[in-house]
Amino acid sequence: MKKIVLTGSAGRLGSHLREPLLEIADALVSADLVDDFGKLHDRETYVKADLSRLDEMTEVLKGAEMVVHFDAIGDKAPFDAILQSNIIGCYNVWEAARINGLRRIVYASSIHAVGMHARTENIGTDAPHRPDTFYGLAKCFAEDLGSLYWDKFQMESVCMRILSCAPVDNTRARFLGYRPKDNAEQFAESILAETPPQDLNDPAHLYQGGPFAAVEPGKSGLATMNIIDDTKKL
Ligand SMILES: NC(=O)c1ccc[n+]([C@@H]2O[C@H](COP(=O)([O-])OP(=O)(O)OC[C@H]3O[C@@H](n4cnc5c(N)ncnc54)[C@H](O)[C@@H]3O)[C@@H](O)[C@H]2O)c1
Fold it and tell me: Which CATH number do you get for residue 19?
């Protein structure tokens, strides 16, 4: 591909995608809101752009074939902040992609779009929406945008429901060429040996969304998790 745009490129996940995306594109445009992005790879440029501005996103996507959309507010936030960055922001990305004639959007969706399904359900990639927070609700909106823009404009979207190792069935992702290289089962014995028995009446253990399923919408699910900042810097 000639040009790929990566949004959320300064974030925890996006920062790890810069190098692999450069392997399949002549040029990578990394976009985010941060002022200090740090060093750039060869063939990479950085653009500061706000998702909540359609004019800015339209400018960023000019001449691109594909956008990999990883910008978002990733946890608790008042509904209005989620509305601007994650709901209006997604509309702006899909609409800017349509205006510029992009072929494909790859979107970082989340398990939290389906987080209120019980862990015992062994859900697959076709699980219906059951969001666990306003954050998850915004992911449902974005997935439905992808469906709408396919039906009306034949624009292709791939929505990946990213999650930690959990009991889900993703065999239907095979048609994308996805072939897992690792197997979480090999760690199960040692993890279970160190983990106290879980109270299955606690929504944080009962539902796919984990801690997000246990908090009120708008409250922090991440606060109860041990998240390591592994953002990749050059
Ligand atoms: N990290 C996970 O485990 C996980 C799991 C499921 C889904 N996701 C999704 O993956 C994507 C990336 O997650 P992450 O963990 O890297 O998040 P992150 O918070 O580390 O990065 C998100 C980036 O988006 C940018 N951003 C936020 N609002 C913006 C706006 N209005 N305009 C422009 N940029 C804005 C931030 O500056 C940040 O660099 C998000 O969509 C998130 O919802 C992450």
Answer: 3.40.50.720
